[in-house]
Amino acid sequence: MTDDLSSPQPPETEAGVATAEDGLVLLDGPDGVAVTMTAAAARSTGESLIEAAKRAEEQLAAKRS
Q: At a CB cut-off of 8 Å and minimum separation 6, what does 12 contact?
């Protein structure tokens, strides 16, 4: 996967909203983004997002130092 930080689309600042329905997790995001996942996939995605957010915050803090 490549990071194209020169994209004209700015990073999203609104969080998605997750709900559970009939044993599945539905994630509704900005701009009409919608994803349906199994519970296992949602948990793994959530854990991955938390770790990536921590790394991104550390990177921003390092830039400010």
A: 29, 30, 31
Is residue 46 assigned to a domain? yes
Per residue in 10-58, pLDDT (tens digit) is: 999 999 999 999 999 999 999 899 999 999 999 999 999 999 999 999 9
* Closest listed residue to residue 20, CA positions, set 41, 45, 37: 37
Cβ atoms 10, 30 nearer than 8 A: no
Would you put residue 38 in left (φ > 0), alpha (ψ -120 to 50) or beta? beta
Contact (Cβ atoms closer than 8 angstroms) between residue 21 and residue 34: no
Supply the pTM of this predicted model: 0.79
In terms of residue numbers, what domain contains 43? 17-64
